[in-house]
Amino acid sequence: MLAHGQTVIQYVEQLAPKALAMEGDKIGLHVGTLQKPVKKVMIALDVLESVVDEAIEQGVDLIVAHHAVIYRPLKHLRTDMAAGRLYEKLIRHDIAVYTAHTNLDVAVGGMNDWLAETIGLTDVDVLDVTYQDAWKKLVVYVPLSHRDAVFQAVSEAGAGWVGNYSHCSFQMTGTGTFCPREGTNPHIGTQGKLERVEEVRLETVMPASKQSAVLRAMKSAHPYEEVAYDIIPLDMPGTGLGIGRIGKLPQAMKLRELALLVKEKFQLQGLRVVGELDATVKKVAVVGGDGSSFVSKAAFRGADVFITGDIGYHTAHDAQADGLSIIDAGHNIEKVMKEKLAIYLSERLQQNGYQTEVVASSVHTDPFQFV
Length: 371
What we know:
This protein is of the alpha/beta class and 371 residues long. It is built from 11 helices and 17 strands. The strands form 4 sheets. It has a 6-stranded mixed beta sheet. The termini are far apart.
């Protein structure tokens, strides 16, 4: 069984809800349609013409990318020019393109956590909080026969987490009543007859960012035409989510050693370093992509070194004056998302019985090289 395009994206958004995206970010479906079965998904950092050619060769139906394929307003769609040629190939071969950008950056278990994990950071925290993920309680009434299916569905969609404990809930049985009227197609009972059914009151908690995904999963697993449920806001501190991560190296090392480690882990030809190479560093901040606007935040949070990309000349001077070392490893270190997201999505599809294949693009899209 192949997954529907919308189903694939539901799994992506369970990891990286749209609500987490920064204002004005170009996320979502950019090209094509999700209203089709999907045989193969490709995960890409950038959607360049070479990546589209790779997708065509491999029979890909859907590209899930980190960087937007339509970022600036289009002035024309001339197929004798590079940009127009790219869109023509996508449309001609019915390849949809969906973008998860800053929502994937912010997400727990997303881009910046993958970067911190690759470097080997411990005691990891959010560098700059941009979103307070409020808590809500979900209460749903389920016939006893479907209790486990609904519970598992909402748990997989992100409900029921308390700290490092998953599948947290309270369940109690009781009697539900309803009377199907004309025009209904009841799963249990007959039209015009009052029914009494043994049901379970299932209570669990969920972050607000996961609410849409949890409700979709709940309704999909629930047998009733009309699902009885409540959403209750909770007066308790929300989880702080945001851009970047800050943590500690397992053991202190020289800045030079850390730079070489970053170069190895991200398979780089080279990188730029600001700071004294023999200085000892322990506390590390990391931001995927262009982190120039987070230099002062990294310094304020007490980082010894900031790992990011696209650092400008004067920004480097500012960091130097603040005593903050920088490793500019380039924007392309975000390529870790290709394998990481492919693994995540493949596992979710397989767990739910889908045969849709997920692959990571092998095209190298970093425009810079060292000579």
